[in-house]
Amino acid sequence: MNHLPLIIKREYLTKVKNKSFIVMTILSPIIMIALVAIVAYLSQLNNDKVRTISVLDESGLVQDIFKNSEKTTYHILENMSLEDAKSISKETGSYGLLHVDKLDAVESTSKHIKFYSEETPSLTLISSLESKLEKTLTNIKLQRQGIDIDLINASKIRIDIAQESFEGEKTSKLDSFARLGFGIAAGYLLFMFIIIYGNMIMRSVIEEKTSRIIEVIISSVKPMQLMLGKIIGTSLAGITQFVIWMIFGGLLMTVVSLVIGINLFDSTTPQQELMQLATEEGGFNFYFESFKTALQNLPLMNLIIAFILFFISGYLLYSSLYAAIGAAVDNETDTQQFLLPIMMPLILAVYIGIFTVIEDPHGTVSTVFSFIPFTSPVVMLMRIPFGVPLWQQLVSLLILVGTFIFTVWFAAKIYRVGILMYGKKPSYKELIKWIKY
Amino acid sequence: MNNLLEVNEVSKNFGDFKALNKVSIIVPKGSIFGLLGPNGAGKTTLIRVINQITIPDHGKVRLDGELLNPIHIKDIGYLPEERGLYKSMKVGEQALYLAQLKGLSKAEAKTRLKYWFDRLEIGDWWNKKIQELSKGMAQKIQFVVTVLHQPKLLIFDEPFSGFDPINANLIKDEILRLREEGATVIFSTHRMESVEELCDDIALIHKSNKILEGKLIDIKRDYKINTYEVGIRTNNKEILEQELASKFDVSEANFKTLEDELKLNIKLSETNRPNDLLSYLTSKGEISHFVELIPSVNDIFIQTVKNN
Description:
Low-confidence stretches of chain B: none
Protein name (chain B): ATP-binding cassette domain-containing protein
Largest sheet of chain A: 4 strands, mixed
Low-confidence stretches of chain A: 264-283
CATH topology of the largest domain in chain B: Rossmann fold
Order of helices and strands of chain A: HHEEHEHEHHEEHHHHHHHHHHH
Number of strands of chain B: 14
GO molecular function, one term (chain B): ATP binding
Shape of chain A: elongated
Distance between the termini of chain B: 33 Å
Keywords (chain B): ATP-binding, Nodulation, Nucleotide-binding, Transport
Structural class of chain A: alpha/beta
Strand content of chain A: 5-15%
Mean pLDDT of chain A: 81
CATH superfamily of the largest domain in chain B: P-loop containing nucleotide triphosphate hydrolases
Strand order of the largest sheet of chain A: 2-1-3-4
Oligomer: heterodimer
Shape of chain B: elongated
Pfam family, one (chain B): ABC_tran
Helix content of chain A: 55-70%
Number of domains of chain B: 2
Radius of gyration of chain A: 31 Å
Number of domains of chain A: 2
Number of strands of chain A: 6
Number of helices of chain B: 10
Number of helices of chain A: 17
InterPro entries (chain B): AAA+_ATPase, ABC_transporter-like_ATP-bd, ABC_transporter-like_CS, ABC_transporter_ATP-binding, DrrA1/2-like_C, P-loop_NTPase
Strand content of chain B: 25-35%
Largest sheet of chain B: 6 strands, mixed
Helix content of chain B: 25-40%
Distance between the termini of chain A: 25 Å
Radius of gyration of chain B: 25 Å
């Protein structure tokens, strides 16, 4: 008798009807969006503040370069001692005082330039001052050496290396960003999914043990069927929750950004940098166009199919282990010692993915770890956007599926023995023994 | 086929531990079969083998003449000793789910549940959650779920634990009624008085081995000790006691009487007949009490386990 659909249905319905599940489904996106909104709002508040900076230029070389901008006002002080300047800028409530001493030679400038302030000044402010001074002083030095600055400017060449693969596909720098984005998103999604819903499966197994219903159930269905039903039912509930989060989260995001008037999508800095990078290189259109080609250049079909296959096998691999842990223990506090060895390869995979795949998607480390079954789903998903040969994908998937079949078998063994064991916390040695039962 | 269940030389090891050692039992159709034994003897393992929860290392199990296979799941109803229900699920939903797992259709399960819930007067619990019910109430639901699919073989492991005397009686009557309707019952318990009352056949398992099996009445005959409990009114108790002690194997007895009688247990040798004893005693005084001592299941249990 095949009871799998019945078990899946029960698992799914009890999960979805559960109060805390419903609350989490609705509350999580609200909390997330609220946090993002608050952070965005606060950082905007900070940016809106206008700073006054006093400048005392005793060298007389640089005071012309400080032009008032939206966020910074420069207050130029002249003909006074440093002490007077300090007290004046304090009284006027300036953010700080930039002091440029008399300069004998332009070489030793840095010793003569100082910034005084009440608090530690912000890094961005200092670096913007530094770059301003650097530019001006370099020009002055060049002039003193008798070099024509106009000539230098005229001879400057701007290089933007056009990228093309051997097959003739055009690529750009944005490509790498898009690929990285896809890879990290996919890998991270799998990681989160395993942790959240793996735990849920584990708890559901423990619940059946502690409520002592397990022996009644197991006299009607095979333990393997029950375990698979649990995994599939919980996963479906998970997918439901994820989809709701995406839709609800997206809607909320739009509503919030409309209401508060903050563009949440733009508040992240890398994107801003990208924007600047693109606009500098030829306007907004260029940015948009290259983004489109970047998307087109992604191996989309490959990405989607690989995502589905690696996601499912990777998830099943880990969730069967979670089910086995749930069966082996009596309560949640005993799960820690068994969870650690599961978490290790998972976290390792994410770190390898983020650090080495960015560095070199086809390097030895990332290639090797994209074949090892416990890290391969995450690492391979991160590598695939950069173009992985089909044979590598297939071999990795084959190893993964082989391991997955083995772990499910192994987990089912532990499961069928574990669910009927009460009252003691098993050691690893005992778990190995159970396999022979 | 007069036997519903035949367990033939079943062995099961858990690592180095031998849980069952070539255990064979035969359960006649329509009987109530008591499966007895001290804690940890292997009863639960045997029951799990019959339920196909545990696969035996050796030996065969036949149900109604057929080797045990997954089809038989619907023919067996099992109430385990370690039992419970999903705490946060509603009574009705839960009962329906468990019934469907035993192969009943949803509609059929619903009709039968209605019938049983009315019968046990628990109809208004349908939409309650288990955590709102008392232990005894939950036990009733479990009983219903166990028998709902009308299995040929019912296995009850300590069915009366958790019930008050009234409900225990109710469940006992239901078990007897199910037997009348043709079910065969395996009954595992430590309450010897229920075995005495209900069981036709028993098997005793001790340290993974079956050490005793048969009709309860036959076993009692085998264990009879040829001893009679006697109460006799006489003027001189001490003289009579000495006289009897010289002729028979005599020990002190304890039972309630109206007068101050001489109370003795008298064990007869092979050659003595109870009638001879009786006529001898009538000449000595007025007999108020003369009963053959029948070994109780309790005595048989303790004696057999000790001797092994």
